[in-house]
Amino acid sequence: MTADHPTHAAHDAAHQTPGDHGAQTGQSDHITHGHRTHHFDPARAERLVSEDRQQMLPAEQILTAAGLAPGQVMVDLGAGPGFFTLPAARIVGPKGRVYAADIQPQLLEMCRQRAAEAGITGIETVHSEESHVPLPDAVADRVFIAFVLHESDDPVAFLREARRLLRPGGEVAIVDWHKTEGTPGPPLEHRVSEDELAALAAQADLCVAPTPTHHRSENYYVVRLAPATTP
Predict the structure, then answer these.
(1) Across the chain, what does the average pLDDT equal?
(2) The domain containing residue 109 runs over which residues?
């Protein structure tokens, strides 16, 4: 999982973009396994924090749209080298905390190094599995899942695990590619539309939160999910 995050099918070079794990180089950024790609190639991890990607994906604006605020605790599922983790730590500040969870230790080490170089504290890296994060129940105000859900082998189990991590009043924030021709991202058949997300969320006892995100992009969406029932 890389968040930047767990990884889906080996994207054809024509579909690789600075915002979706790669650039148009003619080479795959993923190590394939069966019909899916489960591991982003760490040798290409710099693309996940490239200037092009930063321009396409304004991290602080996206995180604010996800409801992140000073003093909160956030779990970044599929944090990779920390594209969203580091700006999240800046937003939550010294009274908050960010857990960066990923299945690839190499990417978590890169996240730690980037945070140290930037002088950013309040980040804890967590080596996890796709649908099992070794953190306690109800640990987070926000569980952030950016460009990861479309890569999950079992998105419902993945969302259930995200829900488990929520504190009362917390939300899961999903950022993913629009399922629209002509937009950046993986092949359309691998994408999850907003309607499909709502259906998957319902199976995980989550529902779309009524709070508007006030952030729009022609390339991606930001959706906030809240528990449908009280634990």
Answers:
(1) 82
(2) 13-227
